[in-house]
Amino acid sequence: MALRNVYKALRMRWSHDEDITSSAGYDAEDGERRVIILNGAQPVKYCNNRISTAKYNIISFLPSFLFEQFRRYSNCFFLLIALLQQIPDVSPTGRYTTLVPLMFILSVSAVKEIIEDVKRHRADNEINHRPIERLENGTWSTVRWAELTVGDIIKVSINTFFPADLIILSSSEPQAMCFIETANLDGETNLKIRQGVTATAGLLETKDLSMLQGRIECELPNRHLYEFNGVLKEFGKQSVSLGNDQVLQRGAMLRNTAWVFGVVVYSGQETKLMKNSTSAPLKRSTVDKLTNTQILMLFMILISLCITSGLCNLFWTREHSETDWYLGLSDFKSLSLGYNLLTFFILYNNLIPISLQVTLELVRFLQAIFINYDIEMYHEPSDTPAMARTSNLNEELGMVKYIFSDKTGTLTQNVMVFKKCSIAGHIYAPQRTPEESLLVQNILRRHESAEVIEEFLVLLSVCHTVIPERSDESIIYHAASPDERALVEGAHFFGYIFDTRTPEYVEINALGQRRRYQVLNVLEFTSARKRMSLIVRTPEGKIKLFCKGADSVIYERLSAQDRQYRDRTLQHLEEFASEGLRTLCLAVADIQPDVYEEWRNTYHKAATALQHRERKLEDAADLIEINLRLLGATAIEDRLQDGVPETIAALMDAGIYIWVLTGDKQETAINIGYSCRLISHTMDILILNEESLDATRDVILRHLGEFKSSTANDMNVALVIDGTTLKYALSCDLRGDFQELCLLCRVVICCRVSPMQKAEVVEMVTQSTKAVTLAIGDGANDVAMIQKANVGIGISGVEGLQAACASDYSIAQFRYLQRLLLVHGAWNYARISKLILYSFYKNVCLYVIELWFALYSGWSGQILFERWTIGLYNVLFTAMPPFAMGLFEKFCTAETMLKYPMLYKPSQNAKLFNVKVFWIWIFNALLHSVFLFWLPMAAYSSDTIWRDGKTNDYLMMGNMVYTYVIVTVCLKAGLITNSWTWLTHMAIWGSIVLWFGFVLIYSHCFPTFNIGSNFPGMDIMMLSTPVFYLGLVLVPITTLLIDVICKLIHNTVFKTLTEAVRETEIRRNDLAEVMNEPRSSDSGFAYALGKLLRSSSVLISRRSSFNGSKEFSVGQRAHSLRIEHLDLEDDSVGQQRSRKRQSEVGWATTNKPRRSAGESVMSNSSTTSTITTTLHM
């Protein structure tokens, strides 16, 4: 009676949002649904089935391309310069010296875009022109995919892709059943079953399809791959619910089914596949952001130089206008400050390198190819290489400070193996044969728990959505998840073999006895429900509900009278979880026929609702999933991937903090943490399990106070928090304290968290620390956090390709992350850093010389160099050295980078590119420009540089200076290059040769070509004076002498570990002795660092006594101990213990006692006099 009252209340609740449709089929809510007329004209015009993934067409290319290009401030800046140069008598460098290089750079980008877009157009045309059979006027005709539209009835044959989103009407299989493969949608290669409704399953002939009359009402197009709400309303028949099981999505392929008939519901760009093909959020690297900031600073300096030069011109003109009358200084333009400012603005604009962006784009593109073709990151079993899906974040891989990792499928293999089960309070494990197992023996000898065991095994073999496929003598199970397959295989181990599925029933072979169970309803698993139920009619005619799910949701639905196995099963669940096994609870309920019939009507009403269907189905399921009887629990092993412990140890040694965000049980996650070396047995574990906001606040503030009262800056503590407590911890008033507590811990594990909570945690750390974060996962539930992190890594795993498709980089196994970060990341960071710094250096070197020349030209804006040589400086003569740096520079080999993870720290801490380093390079360039101008000026001051006494003008001086600049900046590139290849040699020496070749050719262009009118004979004049050759040797050497001396002192006295390792590699010496010889005033530390490289750990331990014996608590630091050039810093005693344990052979897997939220984290009982020093590069 009480249950019927609940039904009535539920109906009243639904009546407020139920769909009430008039006899014509239209009402006020028709705008929120799609109405499709079967075999008739559609009420509205729907889009055709043509798709386009291209960015441009002939009409839109130019405006779209220009809009994209001029969203970059640098291109806008150079366009402004090019426009200003068109003003008569303003530009000192000519009208086209900026416009032509800008056009060249834009043309290169345009060609790249066109090539990529032509490929997209060709792929689109190939798809749009595929043939398909469509029913027209009672006959089948072959049309192109692009010609289909909503409402068309089509025929799809075996091994053919579905051209649009279809509702299946009938198929060659019984009961309109078919099998599909959705690898293109979610990456899952296992077959899935789809089944049409009974009302249309008999439409097997063309005439039957032609006579079909009615309409389909469904939701508007959306991007939810696993959701569909619709209703089939045939004239004169009862409405039938349509769900995701009736949908055949575009991109999926028909398998093991001869043909299907379907009606198009979504076409073209409105299909779910196309709705999901949105671009990932735009991410910019830290280096890019810093570069833009420094460009703005340089722009402000440029403005300051322009104003200063303009004022100097004004004062100089006023002073000399009367005395130097022959210069015509009384002209208005000479007296106009505005004209002079424009002149100097154009003159100094090249302080910002015009070719930097295109060089960066090309270099990053080729760096991405290096990642893609790295054979060391190729997974041969799955034929999966690493893939850089974006190249904008290559250098960001070298700066990662925090890694957020999923567990299942990321750290583990996601290949589930049934290990054991608990039934009626007893634990059983599979044996070689069913007869050998104690479980089967208990059934055969009719043990007191035999009935419970049988019901348990029936549930395992029946309650699922697995599809069996017979292959010779064996059965292959196709499951939507590895867990389901493992459970069915587990029942198979014990002799309960599932071998037949139809839309109406499933059959099993129970120890040789055939049993058929009629499937009445399937209540599917969702992340919100955390359970799956199946209502069946047994061979005896009884109605039963089989339910499996998380222990938290099963236990709260158990009958109050069912207490027989509760405590014992709960104890077994904890034992299974402590072994790192995944657990599920199994329960059953007996349903009376009258209760079921009333519930079935309620469920049908919920299933046919167009609005809020998911909520109504969930409410209906809650009504029947009650008064359950506990049968037992299962334990499935998800093995760690190869190399995970070693990879995590290396990443932690590199100074990276690793957080695990998982939906698994707390105990399972903790034990996986132990087995993968994320948690060491010397760590204290702080567990936060609270049920309210106030309790969460109290425990967070208490532990935060304990941590702050400690002298340690980095606690040797692992924080473990569940999803419920995390919900409160991420609330507005607690977020700040919670993130502070987390950042004080060495390891953080978040359990039972939702995909949105994963994203919130990543966003919290990213925004609060300003450090580079990386998220890695393999499933659709990891997409949100992958997109929130600075760098997203997707694993092409068993759960599909959704994470990989949404990521910035994809790899096949977690272990490849070590090489991706420690090798490619560190290399790319160093390469991009040098490329950017060198690009600014060479520009400042040349173009500031115009400022020094202004002192001699009366601040007139007169240029020292020929105008086209100015324009070609960046795009031709000095373009190759930075390009070679960006591709081939490396300071250590890949093997060394992997062996010594601490070499990652210079890039992680932004040692190679920061504000300080940037302005040191700018100052260095200013200093070089002084030498490069005034040394030739001093040699030129005698006025006669030929032995015949002839003189020449400023342009001869300018070309000499230009030559010395080319030689100097190319030699500077060689000076900072660590890895020389033949391409590097070609880039550096070839650039110098290229300039001399240009001089020889350009000197003879005029008057044949109307360019270079002031350059004829320049080659003869420049190459015939001994002053030029003397300067060619002395000027670059003198200019770079300071750099050589500074480099010599730095590499001798202030040598870093990176430089020491590189030099040892060059000498081919034993790296273990790289730090033995002293390089600073404290040779003792050099010896200690030599011991560091001889060990497999990253510790330097030296024992000493402080006042005899002194006590230290866990997590407490010794006194600060630092050497500036090596950045040595003391570790906590806790960290030393942790890493010592990690370096030992044979990792124990037993649990250490955990501390609950109410216990103190700090241990005051440990005594030691050990000081540990860790290398921080």
UniProtKB/TrEMBL annotation:
Which reaction(s) does the protein catalyse, per the Swiss-Prot or TrEMBL entry?
ATP + H2O + phospholipidSide 1 = ADP + phosphate + phospholipidSide 2; a 1,2-diacyl-sn-glycero-3-phospho-L-serine(out) + ATP + H2O = a 1,2-diacyl-sn-glycero-3-phospho-L-serine(in) + ADP + phosphate + H(+)
Task: Give residue ranges for domain P-type ATPase C-terminal.
Answer: 804-1055
EC nos: 7.6.2.1
The residues that hold Mg(2+) are D406, T408, D778, D782
**Active site annotation, chain numbering:** D406 (4-aspartylphosphate intermediate)
The UniProt annotation places ATP binding at D406, K407, T408, E484, F525, K548, R582, T662, G663, D664, R752, K758, N781, D782
Q: Where is the signal peptide?
A: none
The record's top EC class is translocase
* Protein name listed in UniProt: Phospholipid-transporting ATPase
Q: Which gene encodes it?
A: ATP8A
